[in-house]
Amino acid sequence: MRKRPLGITLFAVLGFMQVAVYATLAVLALVNHAALAAVLHSLSPGGSGPEKMHLAMGKLLPVYYATMMLVALPWSIGFWRLWNWTRWVSVAMIAVSFVVLLATADIAHLRSDGVGAIGLYMLRLGLCLGFGWYLLSGKVSAAFRRVSPAH
Fold this sequence. Notes:
Layout: H1 6-31, H2 33-42, H3 51-56, H4 61-80, H5 84-103, H6 107-113, H7 115-136, H8 138-144
């Protein structure tokens, strides 16, 4: 049995929590749109969070949250069970996020939105670099390698 690194265990647990959050947001989208809007607003300091994009989806928002639940569940199970495809899909998503963050950086806009927006942008860049490095590290790569069964 391969030993799961602590960080990968945390990713899996956070992924399972993400499924629960998406379920909660889906329910809010269906039964209390004002509460959902308040939650999304609190997650969007300086307007740089998910509020505008999520609310723009309108009636498709519960479908989006249900879809994200269906994506997050196998991803979480994959980290828990050390399925290597999960690691590589995550690395690819991190790379895309990093490139998009760099390509869409509007420093003048970030400055005008205040310290919160700049801080969130820098946090996102740092998380991309940190998580990408971690998933590609030797210890984590070794944990995800398939071990051929003994004959």
